[in-house]
Design goal:
The protein is built from four helices and 24 strands. It has helices spanning 179-185, 203-213, 222-229, 276-285; strands at residues 35-36, 48-49, 52-56, 60-64, 73-78, 82-89, 92-97, 103-107, 111-112, 119-121, 125-128, 140-143, 147-148, 150-153, 156-159, 162-165, 169-171, 196-197, 200-201, 245-248, 251-255, 260-265, 270-275, 293-295. The strands form eight sheets. A five-stranded antiparallel beta sheet has the order 8-7-6-3-9, with no helix packed on it. It is globular and about 50 Å long. The protein starts with 34 loop residues before the first strand and ends with a strand.
Amino acid sequence: MGRPGTVGAGRDRFGLTGTSQAFDPRIVAIRPDLADIAVAGTYFAPHYAAPMMRSGVLPAAALRASPSLDAEQTSELLFGEGFALLDLTGGWAWGYCLADHYVGYLAAEALGAPIAPTHRVQMVEAMLHSAPDAASGGPGVLPRGALVMGEAEGEWLATAHGYLPLAALVEVGAAENDPAALAEEMIGTPYVWGGRTAKGIDCSGLVQIAWAAAGIQLPRDTDLQLAALGADKDVDPARLARGDLVFFPGHVGIMADAATIIHASQHWMEVRAEPLADLIARTKADGHEVPVSGAKRLI
């Protein structure tokens, strides 16, 4: 994951020989001019940098494929999540999200000093209040999975950004043992490519935040999740159960029960629960190979 350091300082030049290895640019931080120092022994780059550790300070910040507001959103960094900053140029930060090593560009204003999180938001959304009073206004709304640092004051958590009700939080490290329940809470959420919140989410983002709440960090994209889990490619749909992950070509969902899948669907443009049989039939009609691939419950 790289080592903490100062951007622009301590860069080293390496004289390397041999053949450079192929890499996945989604999860290996290499540009034509710069790379993470952690890969210096494996991949060629003109310069290497040790990352500076930062944390997200916006409720959710778009991670983009290139430094432009018009660039594709590939993921999101949630409030309090860690980011390894490798370069800062023209108002754009380049590096990778610490939770899943996903590489991309963020607006520089999305990053602040690193925190040592004490709590995680467990509600779909939780409002930051200006005072420990439900009637008070606040500076923003944090999404599920956001990380915060603070001290308890009665029924509230006092943070540097405001107050959060403890009822909306769990302590960092606490695991919620039913990822399917989180997916059910997200039903109706708009489908947004690269999204990870109730404002918009994609299929792998839904699976990722559901399993993160259960204390298991999965990669960001569907193919990476499937590879990490080593899922069974000969799944009998009749033997599936609640909490199982089911993979299609470029798609993934969570079983609510033996017959119903919850997924962020491009077809419906929202998170929806529907019969697995319907999704299989639609996938076949689109010309994709089925049967599906699946991974049994991890907890």
